[in-house]
Amino acid sequence: MKTARQSLDHIISESGSMVLQIIVLGVVFSILGAAVMSYLGRQADTQASRRIADELQNLSTTLEMIYSNREACGELIKSGAFGSSLTSLSQNVQIRLPAPSSKVIKADVNYNQVQINKAYFQKPIQIHQAQPIYIANLVIEAKDSGPANSVRQTSVPFYFFTDKGVFSCFATAILDPAKNTTVEDSTCQQYALRLAGKTPPSKPSIYSPTSKTCVEGP
Amino acid sequence: MKKGTLCFSNRQKGLSTLETLIAIGVLSIVAFGFLGWATLSYKGLGNVNENFEITNAMGRLKGAFGDDDTFCTQILGGRSPDQPIDVIYYYDAHNGKLLTDRPIFQVGQPVEGSRGGVNVKSMQLKTLSDLMKYFDPNRNPAPGASVIVGDLEVVFEKSSGLGPQEVTRRIPLYVTLQSGKVKSCSPSPLGSIQIGNAVCGVQADGYSYYNPDKAQPNSDPNAPQDFCWDLPAVQWVSGATPDKASCPANMKVAISPDHTLTGPATVVCRAQTAPGSYIPPRSYKSGFVDSDSAYAFEAQYDSATQTCNFKFQEGIDPSSFKSQIKCIDAGF
Could you tell me which residues are beta bridge partners of residue A125? Predict the structure, then answer.
């Protein structure tokens, strides 16, 4: 019994069919073409995905730059962008960047050609035992062009606290995620070490956003 | 097998004209298809390469800007935001000079390492948000300066002929301006200006600002330079006697009631030993430190009376000292 290969060889050699040879050639080229197109498509997806990651990182940096300012962050709270209290931090954040920009960061909008899917706060964490001072992560999710339904996300940590009866906030950066050490805490710790000289302080120094100074930690 | 139109009998000696024409026709279709595909693939590969060139170029730009104010300020210092930029150069930190023979990007020129496919079309530092309304002009970042957050936007032009021919990439920058020109900038939210302000704020309970241009005068050449300056609203008020100083009625002591770090004496009490010469605020918690022995006095802050009290060593003439306390307007 002839194998398929033998049958094909037979047809080609016996019949001398140019048309069949062309068809075979066409199939080979098609497979090659599909492989190249697939490679190009993957590269395009990778590049688009990388661009989305870059833009998200840029967005995160921009938000940190703007909202590390308390007044700018306070304005967002007044506008209701973040919710009205710690227990009701918004799951649908809407951030209108300060003028002259008219850009809005919220779900279902494009920011620099990145489709934002969600903008929400994670559950706040109390970082100061003695005072009601919290940190909550603002998470921004964007649609990725990679695998189906994949998303990319970035987060910006915010201090939340009540200052003289007013709900306040400002963006920070977490330097030690295990201990929730913020850049402000780190500054206080370095300052305390410098002042202490050879004798390290017995308690860690942490930043108090209400008094805008360093206090002894727990 | 039943012979169809596409199969040929063994008895046939060659191809008929019709068969030849069909074969040529099919071959032409395949050849055109292949050529079209080959052209598309070539353009596609070119497009992919150009996108990589743009990504790499932006990587070099970010690298050239570093992660604090140093490089960015040197590269963009003195430029006006929202104006076209023709060329930006690498900065050589060792020589303290811009490498004017080696641009990072130059408008109209191909990006470094490009095989001519990617050109820089335009560059601009675009204002995204003006933050000055959030600052007290007498406080941070420095009196008279203004702050914006902007994007250094670079528009690239590709030549592959596939996909968008203009690609815009950006780097967010935190920029301080003086007289409308870039005084300093940083690609990081944790640039030395922000960190410096945080440190100065912490050291002085928010009543000082960071001035990277000028260190405080210091009589001790071995002491670290201090770039934290008091806010203009701060006044060091001299006490009536060398051993006691307190703020006048319309002012308050410039210290947070929560300050527990090392005791308020470190930040609100100081002594003037001669015109223009002060003992800087520091910790006297564990008694005198070596370099203080010449001054031979100790300062303590009494929170109940909001007064700085000074004690002098035996044999020291207190009249050669002037006690001072740090005060600020009561409503500040």
Answer: A135
**Chain centroid offset of residue B204 CA:** 23
Give the model confidence (pLDDT) of A123-167 as tens digits.
898 887 777 889 999 999 998 876 666 889 999 999 998 877 788
- Cα separation, A156 vs A138, in Å, equals 5
The C-alpha atoms of residue A56 and residue A44 are separated, in whole angstroms, by: 18
Structure tokens belonging to residue A10: 């037979």
Chain B: give the shortest CA distance to residue A53, in Å. Answer: 12
Judged by CB atoms closer than 8 Å, whether chains meet at B206 and A215 is answered as no
DSSP, collapsed to helix, strand or coil, labels residue A152 as strand
| Residues in a beta bridge with A182 | A174
b/e per residue B56-89 (b: at least 16 CB within 10 A): ebbeebeebbbebbbbbbbbbeeeebeeebeebb
pTM of the shown model: 0.78
Summarised one tens digit per residue, pLDDT across range B242-263 is 889 999 999 999 887 776 655 5
Distance from CA of A123 to the nearest CA of B (A): 24
Contact A58 B172 (CB under 8 A): yes
ipTM of the modeled complex: 0.82
**Residue B41, SS3 per DSSP:** helix
